[in-house]
Records
---
Amino acid sequence: MGEPLRVIQFGLGPIGCDTARLVATRPELQLVAGVDVDPDKAGCSLRAVAQSDAVPDVPVVASLAEAPAADVALHTAGSRLDAIADQLRTVLAAGLDCVSSSEELCWPWYRHPEIAAELDHLATEAGARLLGTGVNPGYVLDLLPVLLTAPCREVRGVYARRVVDLGTRRPQLQAKAGFGMTPEEFERLATEQAIGHVGLEESVCLIAAGLGWELDGVDFDMEAVLADEAVATPHGQADAGQAVGSRQRACGHRGGEGLVELELEMVAGVAEPHDLVRIAGHPPLTVQVEGGVAGDAATPACMVNALRSLRLAPPGLRTALDLVVPHFVAPATGD
Amino acid sequence: MGEPLRVIQFGLGPIGCDTARLVATRPELQLVAGVDVDPDKAGCSLRAVAQSDAVPDVPVVASLAEAPAADVALHTAGSRLDAIADQLRTVLAAGLDCVSSSEELCWPWYRHPEIAAELDHLATEAGARLLGTGVNPGYVLDLLPVLLTAPCREVRGVYARRVVDLGTRRPQLQAKAGFGMTPEEFERLATEQAIGHVGLEESVCLIAAGLGWELDGVDFDMEAVLADEAVATPHGQADAGQAVGSRQRACGHRGGEGLVELELEMVAGVAEPHDLVRIAGHPPLTVQVEGGVAGDAATPACMVNALRSLRLAPPGLRTALDLVVPHFVAPATGD
């Protein structure tokens, strides 16, 4: 093992702090700073903000300009690409490779083709690599289905479904799924895109691009799942008639035919959480992940495990389709 | 799409002929010749040998020296690396990229480190790439489990099992699994390594190498599964007390602890064929492929689909761990 890679943790919400804690377990990675605009965090030690003694006592600063030299940024400061584009510009201008949990960045050409082209140009110029990934989007509903076609002589369609028990997840995710809202409130916030998981359409696009399918478009809908009777979770309660979660669907189609269909159901108290992938092809495949990939624990892992593969890829804006198969690697010491 | 890649189908047994038929469906690939030492095949048209009008009317020759110029060889002429090393030497000397179904080539350092080093050197010198792959080894019990660790923060062990209904498979595979043999015959041929699936230990090594685990060794055993009553298949019958198939296990261990455990059960009339992968880690994962990946249809697909990824890799002897995620890509024309 050579010198450890110097890592900046950019964004210190729950996922960012957890990512810092995971990085701290890897001898090949060395946290050198945290970045967060929150005045309650900037100026503190990353160890204090991430609430773990295993995290090194390095500064949290308010902007990348104040951070020490580094090799890599792990970016967990937003889903929407237009809102984080300036942050990514500074990361790339500093020549850092960057893995971001931004859902839209998993396939940025779908909603923001101009920003995507610009970031690709900046990254290429700087000799840096930029990747959006996570467990969803980034793995369960896109990379995994794509790899599942490797034994197929022919593929006619891809269907995948993720069913999450919202009751076991962090409060932010419950709110995003509309938990506890009246149908009217849910409808209004869904229309404003203030609730709902971001990234299902991006996963559709990634699969279609991988399999060589040009789509006419991607249809999307989202509906509330309403409680028959009151449902309580550690973070709150939904009364009868209120939403216990949501069901989202995205369908990539061509010539009126659905080629890629993805469903995400996030409902408190769901009986059998799971991930399911069906490949309609020759041979056909049906693959089930019992209980589903645990999202909160897995997103930092997807990011950190992708880093090695990303650094083998050419500079530029990359996607999961460009990566040497990402996987866990045991720390060189320990285990 | 540029010019199609010129492909030589090297080896025209059942898998080789089926691979030729699959290649013929891909506009980005162009069959230019078949190679087979069998005097019943050399001198014929590949179309006749592969028994498909979709296959082009190109010659089958007895050796690569007689074949026209090409870019790629798909090699399906043997499992054991020492037996096919000369063929691979000529392929690499001709500067061809090569995907082989040789099971031992999936992790050649396990049984043949010297041949592996030599082939790696030859390939690198020639600017060519060499890969062993297939559905097993090459995918279900190695590449798939490796990718399934991508969402894991920690992995303590990998367990995978493939259960195949031998009754639905080609007669060669039934014979390899000992179908219809007495226990004594089975024992003798197993000891001589004349029966049994090749590649389980190679899959263990590939997983361990990917996950960064140095093994003390790989244990292997194979046993007959005996019929309680007579079992008939389209290709033959096993009487009560004779073998209806076999069960093989390989376990990669370190410090007395099993880190990678693989099982392959090939038994005629098995109730629920399936593939199963369990990752002991955080988060843990249990993934099941309903019915299992259909082996005979999938091996040519694994080879052909790996070609694109292989050609993105640097020259040399490569494994699944070096590949950009392999997957199906729809032909540029058609669908």
---
Amino acid sequence: MEIPVVRNILEANDRLADQLKKLFASRKMLVLNLMSSPGAGKTSILERTLADLAGEFKMAVIEGDLQTDNDARRVAATGAQAVQINTDGGCHLSSSMILEALDKLNLDGLDILFIENVGNLVCPAEFSLGEDSKVTLLSVTEGDDKPEKYPLMFHLSAVMVLNKVDLLPYVDFSMDKARQHASKLNADLKIFPVSCRTREGLEDWYAWLRAARATKN
Amino acid sequence: MEIPVVRNILEANDRLADQLKKLFASRKMLVLNLMSSPGAGKTSILERTLADLAGEFKMAVIEGDLQTDNDARRVAATGAQAVQINTDGGCHLSSSMILEALDKLNLDGLDILFIENVGNLVCPAEFSLGEDSKVTLLSVTEGDDKPEKYPLMFHLSAVMVLNKVDLLPYVDFSMDKARQHASKLNADLKIFPVSCRTREGLEDWYAWLRAARATKN
């Protein structure tokens, strides 16, 4: 007799992620999983994107945080639908949390669903949420060595947004070194240097978003 | 018959941490567990501290990273003993890793052992390494909302180092708000605003370190 005693959490998550993927595909929604260290600017780029593209796309956000609903309030202020997940200490979002959060959203006619993961450059990379693409943000204040030191997230992502480029004059950050390390991990990685503060580079990110969205039509 | 099928990882770690605590106490070493988001400046403050206090204390560092030995090389360049742990994807250090790393260090006459944890504002907080105190770094570029959003680490720490204050003119960061949130989580938390770049505030951190070290004599 076989006694199943230890559930493989990653496998269980992957099975549920496959179901989410099918659900998202059936609704022709583009779903992006935003990941980064705490404070790299995930909520800031969402605020900009939701406001700037409000006339083009119907968008919603699932916010993941250990505590507080600060981020959901911030993105909801742009007029977008938002739902907050509190993981209560959990270090990443999982597909089961996304399934629950979807219950609280009106998915009718939604073009793009953004999932903002818990601020953590390690754990969220391992848990698929059924997304079309992972988007990793790195802020230049964190240092150009981060792709090399936290490889999995950059390896699995379609996009690396290099945020806070307005601070480049004040920090030691080599754009070349960051690009080189990231591209070595992932030759297909698209890299967009931006500043959510000055709006520099945001149009390149929006162009990628439009192209990714167009694949769903 | 009771079949023990799932080991409680946290409890196993805590038991080993108790043993480490005894070992550290018997050697009268001060042991500090440094934690923060990726890129907040843990290695930078160690580089400064090891160089500036080299004449006063015998110090060593255990470096924790997913990959690379970059950080161990950086701190070893100051002349201090350093050993690198690669967690190979693991999101925090554990007591068993520390036990192994201790084998590679000469502990004779060591005054202070710094343990630089994996860059992660979530998971490392839950795993005691037998340290005397946890020291959390927060860089002002991460935002003043981080203590509120990642409460456990700040709740458990003796010290919060607020790093990169040289960048305060260029970011939206309220020192008062960060202090308020952190102090609400932990009334005894010592807060040291510093800049590893300009050296501002480092003397306050050194003064705390000397006082903490003095309790071991």
